[in-house]
Amino acid sequence: MAIDVNVPSFPESVADGSVIAWHKQPGDQVTRDEVLAEIETDKVVFEVPAPEDGVLLEIIENEGATVLSQQLLARIDAGAVASKPATTETAASSTEEKTPTAADVAIAPAARKLMAEKGIDAAQVSGSGKGGRILKEDVLKAIDSAPAAKSAAPAKAAPVVTDNLEGRPEKRVPMSRLRARVAERLLEAQHNAAMLTTFNEVNMKPVMELRARHRDAFEKAHDVRLGFMSFFVKAAVEALKQIPAVNASIEDSDVVYHGFYDIGIAVSSPRGLVVPVLRDVDQMSMAEIEAKIREYAQKAQNKSLSIEEISGGTFTITNGGVFGSMLSTPIINPPQSGILGMHNIQDRAMVVNGEVVVLPMMYLAHSYDHRLIDGREAVQFLVKIKQMLEDPARILLEV
Questions:
Q1: pTM for the whole thing?
Q2: β pairing state of 248-251 and 254-257
Q3: Is the same domain home to 68 and 187?
Q4: How far apart are CA 12 and CA 10, in angstroms?
Q5: What own/partner pairs with CB < 8 Å and gap ≥ 24 does 226-229 have?
Q6: Which residues touch 88 (CB under 8 Å, ≥6 apart)?
Q7: Domain contains 192
Q8: Same domain, 17 and 136
Q9: How many domains does one find in the chain?
Q10: pLDDT tens digit sequence for 163-202
Q11: Among 82, 137, 168, 197, which residue has the least CB neighbours within 10 Å?
Q12: What residues are labeled active site?
């Protein structure tokens, strides 16, 4: 019995998606809940599972196609079993008795993919494999001999590599939906917000010493490593409580002051930058913060973050220091009004009580929307964070 495989239901904030990969081809055996395809939206990648055991009958939307929520994607013959490849003798006798037609000729997976990319029909290709099987080489030959096929619009925007006369190669690839959305939001922030950045520096020695003293006991008690991010998250929450404008946002002509603290943590992923959100972080312990950040980092690498996990947020923290950045001006994430940038820790000569000492220092950057946050508040916010990190007891005491 043929059953439909539909595109997953998208949230209201997602208009459409692109089919970026098929893990099965027509004729392949599939099992229930096995991932058949991946659909990329401007926020997350949706996996399309098989609804039943059976055989994949046909793919309706090839890689590169733009699809809508609940659109027909493929069909499965539920309960069917994929036929085994014919033996050499059987294949030979079948060849003698019948010449394969375009409708039933076998196509190698690599050839099928290339045909889909170039918009070539099986009837345009002469198969040179056993039993008339179409190989990738056959498709390439058909492309070379048919100029019309070259000009056909590809189903998928494949990478194009060109080489000029001087031997200077170039590679052109389509921008991913996530990258395009990030670019759109960055431009939106620059065009619609009066964005400024204030800087300060923090002596990380107190936090590093505290972390070194209790790192092993912390990991043993909570089964998670004690990193620096939980200190910054806790310090940011206390600073947001004292400077509530930084935790607010502008909606039309209103200012919305949020009575909760949802902190976005910028995470690098194979698809680009994503910002999963720690909800009600003021109610979380440092161990819970570290565990959640680790979970989000793993999900980002596996491309399994959900829409809910990357939506919302009242403030964001980004750590360019993990990549070696010394100083930068982070861009706010609309409709938020502020973002904190962490940077690399480096030993520097500092004057303390009239003496030059070497201390592990970090530059901090606070970018903010000047329409809502005055310079005085922006500076005070960063100073509060500096004070709490240089005296971590203030985080516990919430002062």
A1: 0.68
A2: antiparallel
A3: no
A4: 6
A5: 226/286, 226/290, 227/290, 227/293, 228/204, 228/342, 229/265, 229/289, 229/290, 229/293, 229/317, 229/319
A6: none
A7: yes
A8: yes
A9: 2
A10: 555 677 888 877 777 777 778 877 888 888 899 999 999 9
A11: 168
A12: 370, 374
